[in-house]
Write a structure and sequence with these properties.
The protein is of the alpha/beta class and 528 residues long. It is built from 22 helices and 16 strands. The chain folds into four domains: 175 residues, Response regulator (Rossmann fold), CATH 3.40.50.2300; 176 residues, 3-Layer(aba) Sandwich (Rossmann fold), CATH 3.40.50; 82 residues, Helicase, Ruva Protein, domain 3 (Orthogonal Bundle); 55 residues, Arc Repressor Mutant, subunit A. Helix content is 50%, strand content 12%. The chain is flat and about 100 Å long. The structure holds adenosine-5'-triphosphate and magnesium ion (MG). The site of adenosine-5'-triphosphate has 16 residues, from helix 10 and helix 18.
Amino acid sequence: MARNLCNDWRIAEHSAEKWTYPIANTAATTMSSRLLAGVTDLEPSQHLQRLPEGVAPLRILVVDDEALVRKACCEITAGMGFVPLSAGDVPEALAVLQQRPVEMLLLDLKLPGGGGLKLLSVVKNLYPEIGVVMMTAFASVSSAVESMRIGAADYLAKPFALDELTSVLTRTSQRLHFDMESRQLRERLRTQTGLSGLIGTSPKMEEVYHILSKVAHSTLPVLILGESGTGKEMVARSIHMNGSNASNPFIPVDCGSLVPTLIESELFGYVKGAFTGANRAKEGLLAAADGGTVFLDEIGELPMDLQAKLLRALQEKEVRPVGATHAVPISARILAATNRDLSAMVVQGTFRKDLYFRLSVVNLKLPPLRDRRNDIPVLAAHFLERMHRENGTSHVFSEEAIRLMTEYDWPGNVRELENAIERACALSSGPVLHMADLPTQLQDFRAQRTQEARSSITHDEFNPAETSGPAPIVSIADMERQAILGTIRQLNGDKLMAAKLLGIGKTTLYRKLNEYSLAEKKSSASRA
Ligand SMILES: Nc1ncnc2c1ncn2[C@@H]1O[C@H](COP(=O)(O)OP(=O)(O)OP(=O)(O)O)[C@@H](O)[C@H]1O
Ligand SMILES: [Mg+2]
């Protein structure tokens, strides 16, 4: 049974140099048995909860004015795999923090020279990423609450037992490792050095990276939602590739394109003779993923009977292949995606509520491209660059083309943008991609915009009720001139498009422009 360390501790014979820190782990572990004289029946190797192998050891600063407690805590933390440092008061602790990088702090609340709470506030201000565990006396539970409010990760009420200390430290260190990993991953996603290749730096994508970096290292199911072409499969791959099982398979299953019987045999497998044509047994994808990820795409299309089977498989972590009498264990992580409103389907009764809850432990909603327009030029440049790498083509966008792409709503999202750029590269006759090289839906969008702008001008000009004073009389020739020059201006000089939109041939347009410039020259000559 756990014993109260602070009461039972009798520090046994030790020499001064034994207290030199940091201490090598093995030496520290052997010393702990002699140190913990009051609990000598405990074998430290059995009772000290070691930190996980393979992660960099964390430095822990033990701050306590009682030398014996300080030294014993250092011994125990060293035995657990930490690198301990120690300080007896606030100024000493601050000096250590200035000199050495420290990841964790085991801090006594009652300290001379300012008190533990004051040190906690300073640490949380100067080094917010340090994980702080407070040690508080029973009498000061309110201070413990206060310390959690200031930012302590956890606290221990004195006197505490060995296993309480080790489990609080283990918990805090795991949380720190997790935070460090997700910070690093988020940074990689942001700077595009990661494996995912996700492009976008808009605040909406930052939110996606934030969640992605949190879930990548877990095995929780994630439900990825978003309109068609927003990158759901890409995000699923990214979660897999940035997780700890990246070397295991990633298996996408399109629940929308397979007939129900085929989905069943694909997902769960079958035994020889299960149905006509089953000449040999086939392992299901859920079992074949073996420690990897199964990505259930278009999960909203899964028929109700298969939803029930999938739910059972996920709950029981085993599948029964079609025709089999025995179940097979599964260890795959499940990611699912849909562009349908699953919660509405639950309400309508077309999607099982229990399966919905099981799949959507974490929801990741991908923003449509029109809600992150700032990312459009970056994505467009990325696709051009890819085209250059793959096909050796070398193109740049005209300013107008970029502007049009940024204004367009992209109902097909990133996929539509990607296709538009591929098409423009294939069709363009020169190195510059113009507006006219973009697909017809963009041309139509631009024409509609122009039309709207023109009719609003016309509306202002010909609606005397809304303008002050009587409308001026304008000759037909002047109206035509205004229409031609105004349209060209609105289209940023694109004369071919102007001719198309005005419904005149390009030769007529050039002839008219010629006439206007001659008239202009004449009138300036007569003014001179
Ligand atoms: N953030 C992004 N950065 C770079 N490319 C992206 C991004 N998002 C999507 N893409 C590209 O867009 C295309 C569509 O992505 P994906 O197939 O992942 O979308 P989806 O949401 O699964 O679409 P659907 O609903 O139609 O299945 C892919 O070619 C992908 O490479
Ligand atoms: Mg998809």
